[in-house]
Design brief:
Shape of chain B: elongated
Helix content of chain A: over 70%
Number of helices of chain A: 7
Shape of chain A: globular
Structural class of chain B: mainly alpha
Number of helices of chain B: 10
Radius of gyration of chain A: 20 Å
Strand content of chain B: under 5%
Order of helices and strands of chain A: HHHHHHH
Number of domains of chain B: 1
Number of strands of chain A: 0
Oligomer: heterodimer
Distance between the termini of chain B: 23 Å
Strand content of chain A: under 5%
Chain lengths: 242, 218
Protein backbone atom coordinates (compact mmCIF):
# COMPACT_ATOMS: atom_id res chain seq x y z
CA UNK A 1 0.00 0.00 0.00
CA UNK A 2 1.68 3.16 -1.11
CA UNK A 3 0.49 6.63 -1.94
CA UNK A 4 1.31 6.06 -5.61
CA UNK A 5 -1.67 3.70 -5.89
CA UNK A 6 -3.81 6.83 -6.10
CA UNK A 7 -1.98 7.72 -9.29
CA UNK A 8 -4.16 5.08 -10.92
CA UNK A 9 -7.15 7.09 -12.22
CA UNK A 10 -9.61 4.32 -11.36
CA UNK A 11 -8.34 4.07 -7.80
CA UNK A 12 -8.31 7.86 -7.55
CA UNK A 13 -11.90 8.12 -8.76
CA UNK A 14 -13.05 5.51 -6.22
CA UNK A 15 -11.27 7.10 -3.29
CA UNK A 16 -12.00 10.70 -4.20
CA UNK A 17 -15.65 9.79 -4.73
CA UNK A 18 -15.78 8.53 -1.18
CA UNK A 19 -13.85 11.51 0.26
CA UNK A 20 -15.75 14.16 -1.67
CA UNK A 21 -19.05 14.27 0.30
CA UNK A 22 -17.10 14.35 3.56
CA UNK A 23 -14.83 17.13 2.36
CA UNK A 24 -17.80 19.14 1.10
CA UNK A 25 -19.76 18.63 4.32
CA UNK A 26 -16.77 19.43 6.51
CA UNK A 27 -15.97 22.60 4.59
CA UNK A 28 -19.60 23.73 4.99
CA UNK A 29 -19.44 22.80 8.66
CA UNK A 30 -16.35 24.93 9.25
CA UNK A 31 -16.96 27.73 6.78
CA UNK A 32 -20.48 28.65 7.85
CA UNK A 33 -19.88 28.76 11.63
CA UNK A 34 -16.49 30.40 11.11
CA UNK A 35 -17.90 33.19 8.98
CA UNK A 36 -21.07 33.64 11.06
CA UNK A 37 -19.02 33.71 14.25
CA UNK A 38 -16.58 36.14 12.66
CA UNK A 39 -19.14 38.46 11.12
CA UNK A 40 -21.81 38.65 13.79
CA UNK A 41 -20.47 37.41 17.11
CA UNK A 42 -17.16 39.27 17.43
CA UNK A 43 -16.95 42.82 18.80
CA UNK A 44 -15.92 45.76 16.60
CA UNK A 45 -12.22 46.60 16.94
CA UNK A 46 -11.17 49.90 18.52
CA UNK A 47 -9.33 51.34 15.57
CA UNK A 48 -10.87 49.50 12.67
CA UNK A 49 -14.57 49.41 13.55
CA UNK A 50 -16.54 46.71 11.81
CA UNK A 51 -14.16 46.62 8.82
CA UNK A 52 -11.97 44.25 10.81
CA UNK A 53 -14.40 41.48 9.93
CA UNK A 54 -13.27 41.31 6.33
CA UNK A 55 -10.24 39.50 7.73
CA UNK A 56 -12.35 36.32 7.81
CA UNK A 57 -12.42 36.24 4.03
CA UNK A 58 -9.23 38.10 3.24
CA UNK A 59 -6.68 36.08 5.21
CA UNK A 60 -8.03 32.60 4.39
CA UNK A 61 -8.31 33.34 0.68
CA UNK A 62 -4.77 34.73 0.60
CA UNK A 63 -3.53 31.67 2.48
CA UNK A 64 -5.21 29.33 0.01
CA UNK A 65 -4.05 31.39 -2.99
CA UNK A 66 -0.38 30.93 -2.07
CA UNK A 67 -0.68 27.30 -1.05
CA UNK A 68 -2.63 26.43 -4.19
CA UNK A 69 0.43 27.46 -6.19
CA UNK A 70 2.63 25.37 -3.89
CA UNK A 71 0.32 22.42 -4.47
CA UNK A 72 0.53 22.95 -8.23
CA UNK A 73 4.33 23.01 -7.94
CA UNK A 74 4.36 19.65 -6.12
CA UNK A 75 1.86 18.16 -8.57
CA UNK A 76 3.92 19.43 -11.53
CA UNK A 77 7.07 17.87 -10.08
CA UNK A 78 5.27 14.55 -9.59
CA UNK A 79 4.07 14.67 -13.21
CA UNK A 80 7.54 15.48 -14.55
CA UNK A 81 9.27 12.84 -12.45
CA UNK A 82 6.79 9.97 -12.29
CA UNK A 83 4.39 10.88 -15.10
CA UNK A 84 1.15 10.22 -13.29
CA UNK A 85 -1.65 11.80 -15.28
CA UNK A 86 -3.83 12.40 -12.24
CA UNK A 87 -1.13 14.67 -10.85
CA UNK A 88 -0.99 16.86 -13.95
CA UNK A 89 -4.77 17.06 -14.03
CA UNK A 90 -4.88 18.03 -10.36
CA UNK A 91 -2.44 20.86 -11.03
CA UNK A 92 -4.61 21.99 -13.91
CA UNK A 93 -7.72 21.76 -11.72
CA UNK A 94 -6.17 23.80 -8.91
CA UNK A 95 -5.09 26.76 -11.04
CA UNK A 96 -8.45 28.51 -11.58
CA UNK A 97 -9.38 27.98 -7.94
CA UNK A 98 -6.10 29.54 -6.86
CA UNK A 99 -6.58 32.41 -9.28
CA UNK A 100 -10.06 33.17 -7.93
CA UNK A 101 -8.69 33.06 -4.38
CA UNK A 102 -5.99 35.56 -5.40
CA UNK A 103 -8.69 37.83 -6.82
CA UNK A 104 -10.80 37.50 -3.67
CA UNK A 105 -7.81 38.43 -1.53
CA UNK A 106 -7.02 41.43 -3.74
CA UNK A 107 -10.63 42.65 -3.80
CA UNK A 108 -11.31 42.23 -0.10
CA UNK A 109 -7.99 43.95 0.56
CA UNK A 110 -9.08 46.88 -1.60
CA UNK A 111 -12.44 47.07 0.16
CA UNK A 112 -10.62 47.09 3.50
CA UNK A 113 -7.99 49.52 2.31
CA UNK A 114 -10.39 52.19 1.11
CA UNK A 115 -11.73 53.18 4.57
CA UNK A 116 -8.55 52.28 6.47
CA UNK A 117 -5.69 53.51 4.28
CA UNK A 118 -7.78 55.97 2.29
CA UNK A 119 -6.93 54.23 -0.97
CA UNK A 120 -8.14 51.20 -2.90
CA UNK A 121 -4.68 50.31 -4.02
CA UNK A 122 -1.13 51.07 -2.96
CA UNK A 123 2.10 49.72 -4.41
CA UNK A 124 2.86 48.05 -1.14
CA UNK A 125 5.10 44.95 -1.36
CA UNK A 126 2.42 42.52 -0.24
CA UNK A 127 -0.19 43.88 -2.61
CA UNK A 128 2.23 44.00 -5.48
CA UNK A 129 3.51 40.48 -5.04
CA UNK A 130 -0.07 39.23 -4.93
CA UNK A 131 -0.83 41.01 -8.18
CA UNK A 132 2.23 39.32 -9.70
CA UNK A 133 1.02 35.96 -8.39
CA UNK A 134 -2.27 36.64 -10.18
CA UNK A 135 -0.38 37.26 -13.43
CA UNK A 136 1.45 33.96 -13.02
CA UNK A 137 -1.87 32.14 -12.58
CA UNK A 138 -3.15 33.89 -15.69
CA UNK A 139 -0.17 32.79 -17.80
CA UNK A 140 -0.34 29.23 -16.49
CA UNK A 141 -4.04 28.85 -17.30
CA UNK A 142 -3.60 30.50 -20.71
CA UNK A 143 -0.82 28.05 -21.60
CA UNK A 144 -2.97 25.06 -20.59
CA UNK A 145 -5.78 26.39 -22.75
CA UNK A 146 -3.55 27.11 -25.75
CA UNK A 147 -1.95 23.69 -26.27
CA UNK A 148 -4.01 20.94 -27.85
CA UNK A 149 -1.97 17.82 -27.16
CA UNK A 150 -2.77 17.03 -23.50
CA UNK A 151 0.60 15.44 -22.68
CA UNK A 152 2.59 18.26 -24.23
CA UNK A 153 0.38 20.75 -22.41
CA UNK A 154 1.01 18.98 -19.11
CA UNK A 155 4.76 18.95 -19.74
CA UNK A 156 5.02 22.57 -20.79
CA UNK A 157 2.80 23.93 -18.03
CA UNK A 158 4.77 21.91 -15.49
CA UNK A 159 8.03 23.41 -16.70
CA UNK A 160 6.39 26.84 -16.59
CA UNK A 161 5.20 26.16 -13.05
CA UNK A 162 8.73 25.27 -11.91
CA UNK A 163 10.37 28.28 -13.53
CA UNK A 164 7.45 30.50 -12.51
CA UNK A 165 7.80 29.43 -8.88
CA UNK A 166 11.43 30.49 -8.82
CA UNK A 167 10.59 33.81 -10.43
CA UNK A 168 7.54 34.39 -8.23
CA UNK A 169 9.77 33.87 -5.21
CA UNK A 170 12.41 36.21 -6.66
CA UNK A 171 9.77 38.81 -7.48
CA UNK A 172 8.45 38.70 -3.95
CA UNK A 173 11.79 39.68 -2.48
CA UNK A 174 12.65 42.05 -5.32
CA UNK A 175 9.38 43.85 -4.65
CA UNK A 176 10.23 44.30 -0.99
CA UNK A 177 13.51 45.77 -2.07
CA UNK A 178 11.88 48.05 -4.62
CA UNK A 179 9.17 49.39 -2.33
CA UNK A 180 11.71 50.21 0.36
CA UNK A 181 13.71 51.99 -2.27
CA UNK A 182 10.75 54.18 -3.14
CA UNK A 183 8.95 54.65 0.17
CA UNK A 184 10.14 54.97 3.72
CA UNK A 185 9.59 51.37 4.76
CA UNK A 186 6.38 49.44 4.43
CA UNK A 187 4.28 51.63 6.70
CA UNK A 188 1.01 50.40 5.25
CA UNK A 189 1.45 46.72 5.75
CA UNK A 190 0.34 45.49 9.13
CA UNK A 191 1.28 41.96 10.01
CA UNK A 192 -2.28 41.23 10.85
CA UNK A 193 -2.15 37.70 12.13
CA UNK A 194 0.30 38.56 14.87
CA UNK A 195 -1.78 41.41 16.22
CA UNK A 196 -5.06 39.62 16.31
CA UNK A 197 -6.59 39.13 19.74
CA UNK A 198 -8.00 35.75 20.73
CA UNK A 199 -11.60 36.91 20.20
CA UNK A 200 -10.81 37.28 16.52
CA UNK A 201 -8.28 34.49 16.20
CA UNK A 202 -10.57 31.51 16.85
CA UNK A 203 -13.16 32.25 14.18
CA UNK A 204 -10.25 33.11 11.89
CA UNK A 205 -8.69 29.68 12.34
CA UNK A 206 -12.10 28.15 11.71
CA UNK A 207 -12.55 30.07 8.46
CA UNK A 208 -9.02 29.23 7.31
CA UNK A 209 -9.82 25.55 7.87
CA UNK A 210 -13.06 26.10 5.97
CA UNK A 211 -11.30 27.70 3.02
CA UNK A 212 -8.71 24.94 2.87
CA UNK A 213 -11.43 22.29 2.91
CA UNK A 214 -13.35 24.24 0.27
CA UNK A 215 -10.21 24.30 -1.87
CA UNK A 216 -9.78 20.54 -1.40
CA UNK A 217 -13.41 19.95 -2.37
CA UNK A 218 -13.22 22.12 -5.47
CA UNK A 219 -9.94 20.60 -6.62
CA UNK A 220 -11.32 17.07 -6.17
CA UNK A 221 -14.46 17.95 -8.13
CA UNK A 222 -12.46 19.60 -10.89
CA UNK A 223 -9.89 16.79 -11.07
CA UNK A 224 -12.70 14.24 -11.35
CA UNK A 225 -14.24 16.33 -14.12
CA UNK A 226 -10.89 16.46 -15.93
CA UNK A 227 -10.47 12.70 -15.65
CA UNK A 228 -13.97 12.12 -17.01
CA UNK A 229 -13.33 14.58 -19.84
CA UNK A 230 -10.12 12.75 -20.68
CA UNK A 231 -11.93 9.38 -20.68
CA UNK A 232 -14.64 10.84 -22.88
CA UNK A 233 -12.19 12.16 -25.45
CA UNK A 234 -10.43 8.77 -25.43
CA UNK A 235 -13.77 7.06 -26.11
CA UNK A 236 -14.58 9.46 -28.94
CA UNK A 237 -11.16 8.90 -30.46
CA UNK A 238 -11.63 5.13 -30.25
CA UNK A 239 -15.01 5.30 -31.95
CA UNK A 240 -13.54 7.33 -34.76
CA UNK A 241 -10.90 4.68 -35.25
CA UNK A 242 -13.48 1.93 -35.69
CA UNK B 1 27.91 26.53 -31.91
CA UNK B 2 29.73 29.57 -33.24
CA UNK B 3 28.55 28.69 -36.73
CA UNK B 4 25.02 28.65 -35.39
CA UNK B 5 25.52 32.03 -33.78
CA UNK B 6 26.91 33.61 -36.94
CA UNK B 7 24.12 32.03 -39.00
CA UNK B 8 21.47 33.55 -36.73
CA UNK B 9 23.19 36.90 -36.75
CA UNK B 10 23.43 36.95 -40.53
CA UNK B 11 19.80 35.93 -40.84
CA UNK B 12 18.72 38.66 -38.44
CA UNK B 13 20.67 41.36 -40.22
CA UNK B 14 20.04 40.33 -43.83
CA UNK B 15 16.54 38.91 -43.72
CA UNK B 16 15.29 42.00 -41.91
CA UNK B 17 12.63 41.88 -39.26
CA UNK B 18 13.55 42.16 -35.65
CA UNK B 19 16.87 43.91 -35.92
CA UNK B 20 15.91 47.46 -36.86
CA UNK B 21 12.31 47.09 -35.81
CA UNK B 22 12.88 46.86 -32.08
CA UNK B 23 15.22 49.87 -32.16
CA UNK B 24 12.62 51.90 -34.04
CA UNK B 25 9.97 50.78 -31.56
CA UNK B 26 12.19 51.89 -28.69
CA UNK B 27 12.66 55.31 -30.32
CA UNK B 28 8.95 55.81 -30.98
CA UNK B 29 8.02 54.78 -27.44
CA UNK B 30 10.49 57.29 -26.02
CA UNK B 31 9.16 60.02 -28.28
CA UNK B 32 5.57 59.27 -27.30
CA UNK B 33 6.16 59.46 -23.54
CA UNK B 34 6.52 63.28 -23.35
CA UNK B 35 3.26 63.63 -25.29
CA UNK B 36 1.61 61.51 -22.64
CA UNK B 37 3.03 63.04 -19.48
CA UNK B 38 3.85 66.60 -20.60
CA UNK B 39 7.15 68.27 -21.52
CA UNK B 40 8.15 69.35 -17.96
CA UNK B 41 11.94 68.61 -17.82
CA UNK B 42 12.01 67.79 -14.10
CA UNK B 43 9.20 65.26 -14.44
CA UNK B 44 10.79 63.68 -17.52
CA UNK B 45 14.10 63.44 -15.71
CA UNK B 46 12.43 61.71 -12.78
CA UNK B 47 10.73 59.04 -14.87
CA UNK B 48 13.41 58.65 -17.57
CA UNK B 49 15.24 55.58 -16.16
CA UNK B 50 12.00 53.68 -15.59
CA UNK B 51 10.50 54.62 -18.95
CA UNK B 52 13.65 53.66 -20.84
CA UNK B 53 13.85 50.36 -18.99
CA UNK B 54 10.22 49.48 -19.69
CA UNK B 55 10.74 50.58 -23.29
CA UNK B 56 13.80 48.37 -23.72
CA UNK B 57 11.91 45.47 -22.15
CA UNK B 58 8.97 45.82 -24.54
CA UNK B 59 11.29 46.32 -27.51
CA UNK B 60 13.16 43.10 -26.75
CA UNK B 61 9.80 41.34 -26.41
CA UNK B 62 8.88 42.25 -29.99
CA UNK B 63 11.28 39.90 -31.73
CA UNK B 64 10.98 36.99 -29.29
CA UNK B 65 8.35 35.01 -31.16
CA UNK B 66 10.67 34.80 -34.17
CA UNK B 67 13.45 33.22 -32.12
CA UNK B 68 12.45 29.60 -32.78
CA UNK B 69 9.31 30.00 -34.88
CA UNK B 70 10.94 30.22 -38.32
CA UNK B 71 13.35 27.37 -37.59
CA UNK B 72 10.46 25.31 -36.30
CA UNK B 73 8.36 25.91 -39.40
CA UNK B 74 11.01 24.99 -41.96
CA UNK B 75 12.36 22.04 -39.98
CA UNK B 76 15.73 23.51 -39.05
CA UNK B 77 14.92 22.96 -35.40
CA UNK B 78 14.47 19.23 -36.01
CA UNK B 79 17.85 19.15 -37.72
CA UNK B 80 19.39 21.03 -34.81
CA UNK B 81 17.81 18.60 -32.34
CA UNK B 82 19.68 15.73 -34.00
CA UNK B 83 22.91 17.72 -34.34
CA UNK B 84 25.87 16.92 -32.06
CA UNK B 85 25.34 20.24 -30.25
CA UNK B 86 23.01 19.70 -27.27
CA UNK B 87 19.70 21.56 -27.38
CA UNK B 88 20.81 23.58 -24.34
CA UNK B 89 23.72 24.95 -26.39
CA UNK B 90 21.39 25.75 -29.28
CA UNK B 91 19.12 27.68 -26.92
CA UNK B 92 22.05 29.57 -25.41
CA UNK B 93 23.28 30.53 -28.88
CA UNK B 94 19.80 31.60 -29.96
CA UNK B 95 19.52 33.77 -26.85
CA UNK B 96 22.98 35.20 -27.52
CA UNK B 97 22.03 36.05 -31.09
CA UNK B 98 18.82 37.65 -29.86
CA UNK B 99 20.77 39.70 -27.34
CA UNK B 100 23.34 40.83 -29.90
CA UNK B 101 20.59 41.95 -32.28
CA UNK B 102 18.25 43.57 -29.73
CA UNK B 103 19.69 43.89 -26.23
CA UNK B 104 23.04 45.32 -27.27
CA UNK B 105 21.66 47.89 -29.77
CA UNK B 106 19.04 48.91 -27.22
CA UNK B 107 21.77 49.38 -24.62
CA UNK B 108 23.75 51.55 -27.00
CA UNK B 109 20.70 53.56 -28.05
CA UNK B 110 19.37 54.12 -24.53
CA UNK B 111 21.84 56.89 -23.50
CA UNK B 112 21.03 58.80 -26.71
CA UNK B 113 17.32 58.49 -26.04
CA UNK B 114 18.08 59.51 -22.45
CA UNK B 115 18.98 62.96 -23.82
CA UNK B 116 15.43 63.26 -25.16
CA UNK B 117 14.09 62.63 -21.66
CA UNK B 118 16.51 65.07 -20.00
CA UNK B 119 18.49 62.35 -18.24
CA UNK B 120 21.68 63.63 -16.56
CA UNK B 121 25.17 62.63 -17.74
CA UNK B 122 25.99 60.09 -15.01
CA UNK B 123 22.39 58.90 -15.24
CA UNK B 124 22.93 58.01 -18.90
CA UNK B 125 26.06 56.08 -18.01
CA UNK B 126 24.32 54.12 -15.26
CA UNK B 127 21.35 53.45 -17.53
CA UNK B 128 23.60 51.97 -20.21
CA UNK B 129 25.47 49.94 -17.61
CA UNK B 130 22.30 48.59 -16.02
CA UNK B 131 20.89 47.69 -19.44
CA UNK B 132 24.16 46.00 -20.35
CA UNK B 133 23.90 43.88 -17.21
CA UNK B 134 20.15 43.28 -17.34
CA UNK B 135 19.22 42.75 -20.98
CA UNK B 136 20.93 39.33 -21.33
CA UNK B 137 18.47 38.08 -18.71
CA UNK B 138 15.62 39.40 -20.86
CA UNK B 139 16.88 37.44 -23.87
CA UNK B 140 17.32 34.26 -21.82
CA UNK B 141 13.88 34.50 -20.22
CA UNK B 142 12.53 35.26 -23.67
CA UNK B 143 14.20 32.15 -25.06
CA UNK B 144 12.41 30.11 -22.41
CA UNK B 145 9.06 31.70 -23.28
CA UNK B 146 9.69 31.24 -27.00
CA UNK B 147 10.58 27.59 -26.38
CA UNK B 148 7.32 27.03 -24.51
CA UNK B 149 5.17 28.59 -27.21
CA UNK B 150 7.04 27.50 -30.35
CA UNK B 151 4.43 24.96 -31.39
CA UNK B 152 1.45 27.29 -31.01
CA UNK B 153 -0.29 28.92 -33.92
CA UNK B 154 -0.87 32.23 -32.16
CA UNK B 155 2.03 31.97 -29.78
CA UNK B 156 2.89 35.67 -29.75
CA UNK B 157 0.13 36.80 -27.40
CA UNK B 158 0.60 33.92 -24.99
CA UNK B 159 4.34 34.50 -25.15
CA UNK B 160 4.03 38.06 -23.85
CA UNK B 161 1.60 36.94 -21.16
CA UNK B 162 4.09 34.29 -20.00
CA UNK B 163 7.27 36.28 -20.31
CA UNK B 164 6.31 39.67 -18.89
CA UNK B 165 5.69 38.47 -15.30
CA UNK B 166 9.05 36.69 -15.46
CA UNK B 167 10.68 40.01 -16.35
CA UNK B 168 9.65 41.59 -13.04
CA UNK B 169 12.81 40.94 -10.96
CA UNK B 170 15.13 42.04 -13.79
CA UNK B 171 13.10 45.18 -14.36
CA UNK B 172 13.02 46.04 -10.67
CA UNK B 173 16.75 45.71 -10.12
CA UNK B 174 17.78 47.16 -13.48
CA UNK B 175 15.54 50.23 -13.32
CA UNK B 176 16.39 50.74 -9.65
CA UNK B 177 20.11 50.73 -10.44
CA UNK B 178 19.58 53.25 -13.24
CA UNK B 179 17.42 55.44 -11.01
CA UNK B 180 19.90 55.41 -8.14
CA UNK B 181 22.72 56.16 -10.52
CA UNK B 182 20.80 59.09 -11.99
CA UNK B 183 20.10 60.52 -8.55
CA UNK B 184 23.67 60.09 -7.37
CA UNK B 185 22.93 57.32 -4.85
CA UNK B 186 24.95 54.13 -4.50
CA UNK B 187 23.86 52.01 -7.47
CA UNK B 188 26.59 49.38 -7.28
CA UNK B 189 24.87 46.82 -5.00
CA UNK B 190 21.65 46.96 -7.02
CA UNK B 191 23.61 46.48 -10.21
CA UNK B 192 25.21 43.40 -8.66
CA UNK B 193 21.76 42.00 -7.84
CA UNK B 194 20.68 42.55 -11.44
CA UNK B 195 23.86 40.79 -12.54
CA UNK B 196 23.08 37.92 -10.18
CA UNK B 197 19.70 37.44 -11.85
CA UNK B 198 21.31 37.48 -15.29
CA UNK B 199 23.87 34.87 -14.27
CA UNK B 200 21.24 32.67 -12.63
CA UNK B 201 19.14 32.88 -15.81
CA UNK B 202 22.19 31.96 -17.85
CA UNK B 203 22.88 28.96 -15.64
CA UNK B 204 19.34 27.58 -15.41
CA UNK B 205 17.05 28.75 -18.18
CA UNK B 206 18.76 27.08 -21.19
CA UNK B 207 17.89 23.73 -19.56
CA UNK B 208 14.26 24.70 -19.03
CA UNK B 209 13.96 26.11 -22.55
CA UNK B 210 15.62 23.04 -24.08
CA UNK B 211 13.23 20.77 -22.15
CA UNK B 212 10.29 22.77 -23.50
CA UNK B 213 11.57 22.60 -27.07
CA UNK B 214 12.10 18.84 -26.82
CA UNK B 215 8.47 18.49 -25.73
CA UNK B 216 7.35 20.65 -28.64
CA UNK B 217 9.40 18.62 -31.14
CA UNK B 218 8.04 15.32 -29.85
Amino acid sequence: MSIWEYANPKKFMETSGRILPWAAALSALTLVPGLVWGFFLTPDADRFGSTVKIIYIHVPSAFVAINAWAMMLVASLIWLIRRHHVSALAARAAAPVGMVMTLIALFTGAIWGEPMWGTWWAWDPRLTSFLILFLFYLGYIALWAAIENPDAAADLTSVLCLVGSVFAFLSRYAVYFWAQGLHQGASLSVDRAQHVADVYAWPLWLSIAGFVLLFLTLVLVRTRTEIRARRLSALVARERME
Amino acid sequence: MLALLSRDLRLAVRAGGGFGLSLAFFLILTVLVPFGVGPDPARLQAIAPGILWVGALLASLLSLDRMFQLDWEDGTLDALATAPVPMEGVVAMKAAAHWLTTGLPLTLAAPVLGVLLNLSGPGRGWLALSLLVGTPALSLIGAFGAGLTVGLKRGGLILSLLVLPLYVPTLIFGAEAARRGAEGLAAGPVLLLAGAITLACLAALPYAAAAAIRVNLR
